[in-house]
Amino acid sequence: MNIFERMLNTQALMFVYVVTGIIMAKTKILKHEGRSSFINLLLDITLPCMILNSFNVDADINQLIAAGEIMIISSVCFVIAWLSGKIFWRKAPKERRAVLEFATQFSNAGNAGLPIVAAVFGAEGVFYASFYLMPVRILIWTAGLSLFVEGESFKDKIKILLKTPSLDVVFVGLVLMFLPFKLPSVLSTAIKNMGDMTGPLSMMIIGAALGESNLRDALDVDAFKLTFVRLAVQPLMYLFLLRAVGVPDILWQVTVVLTAMPAAANTEIIAEMYGKDYKFAARCVVVSTIVSLVSVPLLTLLF
């Protein structure tokens, strides 16, 4: 089965989970106030477990070198995305510019991207994706946050980073790789099984958010422009650039998949937290999420 078929099957499966989430929201099985508990479960337990499981392997110097390469790639992609945001949205209304630039710079690579990478590329893909996301998680709470608020101290930003389990667990995983022994079978199995919950859980949460949304409100021209930049312009640019410079297949493929994800789910959360246009931010997340179910498999036809 080629990458396109695997991605198509994965997105079809994810679509089933999304529809399940929509049904849960519409029938009030999962209410708005309960969704935050599911999000905490995802961010604090299942996602870190999935990342940690990818490190429960024998250390390979070549893999570590490749991990360093993908961190450099991630940083370069951010610079390109930052410049793209400044160029594309320089004429956007001031009250929307922060949202548009943030959503251009950051995709939903963690919540949605990692489960898809796991399903298509396996544990090796998750390993590299975890390193790709390290600079992203640092930048999202520094450069990204600065788009919405000024005056946030460096100390406060560091505190936010240290409270991010999916970042902390990468360092734990690195230690685990170099230990002269492996985790007990029961513990490693438990970590793997909890990590396997990430894909269905993340998609059901996204589905529940869609179920609470008024899709008529999503018909926003700027949201569709953002979706085009987020799901087509940027990933295609990275795809041709990384292939042209000879980046190993697994690294550029993981990078393209992660950058082809919809707008970061916390775009709306941060916008609301700091008094920006969070309703518009929610539209950007909704529209890009729906379109990504089709655009991501199509993109892999170029792999």
Written account of the structure:
The protein is mostly helical and 303 residues long. It has one domain (3-302): Up-down Bundle (Na+/H+ antiporter like fold). The chain has 14 helices and no strands. It has helices at residues 3-26, 32-54, 61-88, 94-105, 109-140, 143-146, 154-162, 165-178, 185-195, 198-212, 221-244, 249-259, 266-273, 278-299. The protein is globular, with a radius of gyration of 18 Å. The chain starts with a helix and ends with a helix. The model has no long low-confidence stretch (mean pLDDT 86).
Summarize the model shown.
With 303 residues, this protein is mostly helical. The chain has helices spanning 3-26, 32-54, 61-88, 94-105, 109-140, 143-146, 154-162, 165-178, 185-195, 198-212, 221-244, 249-259, 266-273, 278-299.
Shape, per Cα inertia axes: globular
Number of contiguous helices: 14
Mean pLDDT: 86
Q: Predict the CATH topology.
A: Na+/H+ antiporter like fold
Could you state the order of secondary-structure elements as H and E? HHHHHHHHHHHHHH
How far apart are the first and last residues' alpha carbons, in Å? 13 Å
The number of domains is: 1
Task: Kindly state the percentage of residues in helix.
Answer: over 70%
| Count of extended strands | 0
What characterizes the major β-sheet? none
CA-based gyration radius: 18 Å
Portion in beta strands: under 5%
**CATH class, anyone?**
Mainly Alpha
Q: Structural class of the secondary structure composition? A: mainly alpha
Low-confidence stretches: none
CATH architecture: Up-down Bundle
